[in-house]
């Protein structure tokens, strides 16, 4: 059993402590917006926030996540008001297949909370998620749009 | 209210939301079915025709048979229907009919296959007619109600007006009556120059849910009582399961059942996928790997190299003059051998499918590029007839050709069949996905060019050796053994014709099919053919002491459309003016999927091995552009896919199996490696070409040619990581 705080809610989950956070989120908490892509912290599809820090949830165990404040894509918006990154993603028509975008949006949201006006170099360094559809141009443009708003 | 459509309804009464029939349908109650972006038509909203349903509140539900996997066809097809329908675009939603419904209605929605960049170009005619037919019927219904001739009525944004009397009504109000009318035998389609919805860079219809985590992909399917399966197929293609020691994992947490799947795979079914995967990894499996275990990249390369020898048999794909005589008598000849490796699709969402099998029904929920092929796979794997099967399509987390295959669907059904009544979600691990792909085919190519004394190209011999996709995937499409698709981009005529006229030409293919299963991989045979031909053209230009652009132009007089896109990129990149200090350019062109494309790259190179791709200008003539914003995204996206393969890709074979198991060994481009992409669309009309794939062909050769301009070194082998060349 583990107690996880996800999107402000406490989940008591029947999971082994070495279960990757990703699978506890998807299968036990039932929040499927966070995606499985590689399982080895390479692709970033499973990115969530742990105490505000962008974290690849496939590489973190439930034991390590206990006591931390976890935010998933489902918890990014404030009530019915979408987060500015989500709004920009819609306005700029960023996603193609969309599968990597939960992780991409979480990574970008974390970057912007740390650096509200990131340079291209900041973006290059912080955003290392794989997108096989190739939405990078729109991702970059959307980030700059938010930063200049 | 059940959200499924019963497959046995007549055309007029096709109403979504009827009462559940049978166990399988009842299970669907909790399914979000693609989320609000793929809304089901409301109960009791009759369809005007197969493509159009209009609700009383004027919402227009447009049916889409092709699959959306990020390429934007869902939005583009809806634009085409809406254009002819003259409805209010802000009221448009879409839904997928199921293959089972389509079959029950004599394939009223036509082909479901979404590959070969066909999504729009192969259905534009009938979906536009679907929209136009519905418009005529809706106007007629209003005219009938007002007892006036339909010719006196006009429509704009779904509002019908009788000009003389000033009466107005809306599509939603007359849809019920329109549905009862006989459709017109003929309708006239709009001239694309009059388009107001199609042809515009409208926002996609399916974006919002992709930003909130609510879009449902196959991996997200939840059904009551569902269990999860992890699978391991024999690591050597063609091998079999010899035995497995079930007792070793029986009793592990969550494990419900261990099943053999076909004769080559074992699956563990558990409460969660994590439990299933953990137990599967602990399961001892003995494989009968067979003779294929002796195959390696080296043995394949040797076998392919033998095919480059003229004495070996080959299929002729394009020929004129007498190449061998011309080369023998030439003043100068140039020869080069290139190769291109296996590539995995590596869709971000690994393969998966959810199946529910009962004695009288088998249903599958999955992302598929070919609903009907998946449907046929369900029939075959379940052994049930068509009326007892169906496939419910959801959003694909990437396709790129991989999800046109049905191996994962068959597996899911084979597992579910061993647990009747329990829905089973089968999900491949990334490792399973990397090692059980349907790989971009492996080829080598030997090219010989010959010049006369005035440096005119008089002969070109293009000899391919390697794998045929159709041989493995669609043997029925072979022509007397020849794979016509092997000549994509270098064909004599048709939708992938060579753009050069050479007096003596021989393009041939020595077919050699290793045991690694090939598949259609975005761009398919255009990928390697464009690298071979366009890099060799660059070699020939340099051998002749001519500018690569001018050299090509001289050979393209008879192919004005090929030439026009080449000229467009040359102009945009400023080919005739020198590049900035330290910046080098390369150029390429090809035709594929009915579209003409060209690309020009600007790169810088550090230490001879670190490439920064600064800028790629791409030009395309697909005939018509339905959504320029999406075409632009397809161009940039195709470059990411093609350059990832060029720099990082390449799947190698050892002991009969694929060596790369995850993104650590099969990497993909990141945002810091993304060049600036500029798109030049020059649609010339009169034909319909594709946009998802063609441009992928020009990225790699343009970059390789620029690399030569920078370093004087020719790269003739992919991937670049094998030559210790990387992104800067």
Automatic annotation (TrEMBL), chain B:
It comes from Bradyrhizobium rifense. Residues 212-291 form the Aldehyde oxidase/xanthine dehydrogenase a/b hammerhead domain. Signal peptide: none annotated. This is Xanthine dehydrogenase family protein molybdopterin-binding subunit. It holds the Pfam family MoCoBD_2. InterPro entries: Ald_Oxase/Xan_DH_a/b, AldOxase/xan_DH_MoCoBD1, AldOxase/xan_DH_MoCoBD2, AldOxase/xan_DH_Mopterin-bd_sf, N-heterocyclic_Hydroxylase, OxRdtase_Mopterin-bd_su_IorB, TAT_signal. One of its GO terms (molecular function) is oxidoreductase activity.
